[in-house]
């Protein structure tokens, strides 16, 4: 294992390990979001509110597509972390090779399908006719770069599975800076408009993927693959798909819900679209801590489950729940009292109507942040133990709650009704997750007692 910088999470203080792993993950999530946020800031400031609305309205659709790939690759990496925790490096490398096959296949098929369905999807989302050209061009370029998105997500997931959450962060910082520079060059200097933002995003992601690959080759001999690792095993592909597809679907189901909400927001016009877009991006930044804690738990639980250390799984969940409640309180205060000033990142303060829409959203949903954090905790813990179906079911509950409320309120009530679909969805998602976690932990405890008595 010479030259590796792996992090064995089966030993040491759980809280300390989780915090140290989460911080780079959190910063990484912020910089990953920075691609679309930088596009929105630069487009909003240099092109105008219509450009901000155009790019903002693609956020839920981008999350649907890239979230599926990210979830898929994260699901594949769970088996990598489990075999790493079990110290079976030959099996670990085999699953890395099989993951590469699947990631390439999915990204190519998705590119073809979404390029064909680009305009019909946007029409289903009620994209205004005056924004259609910009939105269609932006998403077409994003779809063309999905292979690059899959490459980065796969390589970063492999690094995190081995306990390295810092390196993907460094590469994202570099590419985020490149993204901003290219945004300015393409929009301000070359006058490429919204399409320039999309090109900047794809090129910057490609650079982060390339940096990951070079780093793995130089620093992680444990991940150097041989010809024998690529020998196709249908059983192994099946195991990867059994974890990857539910995780991908869970992201996509959540995204479908946000697309439904976006469609409802679009009915209210460009001002509400811009305000809702700005609010969503700001909320995503402060909620990155929840996502990072969740992703950390997937690796932590995966390694400890692989090593048979269920006591450490339980203590890790307990201390992470406390961290989530503390951060929720901080987030609630920040969003309620300072959300207005944060919207100035995206729009000029003179756009008072847009700012008022964003503030209305914050004041409607801020109280529900503890539920968001808990979703990430229990969903990723179950996935780390290899249970993919119930976490996906949580996504189904979330989607059903959003769809039902949107059907009731869209265009029939004030904008507050649409805002309330988020808290309802977050609470609904926890209905299957928390009981199933406690059921699994009791079941595992009974099995351990039975084994010790034999």
UniProtKB/TrEMBL annotation:
Entry-linked Pfam families: MatE
PANTHER family registered for this protein in UniProt: MULTIDRUG RESISTANCE PROTEIN YPNP-RELATED
Domain of life of the organism encoding this protein: Bacteria
Assigned keywords, A-Z: Cell membrane, Membrane, Transmembrane, Transmembrane helix, Transport
This protein's record includes keyword DNA-binding: no
Transport among keywords: yes
Protein name listed in UniProt: MATE family efflux transporter
InterPro entries documented for this protein: MATE_fam, MdtK-like, Membrane_Transporter-Flippase
Subcellular location: Cell membrane
Chief localization: membrane
Transmembrane segments: 61-84, 96-117, 137-162, 169-192, 198-217, 237-262, 282-301, 322-339, 359-378, 390-411, 423-440
Membrane topology: Multi-pass membrane protein
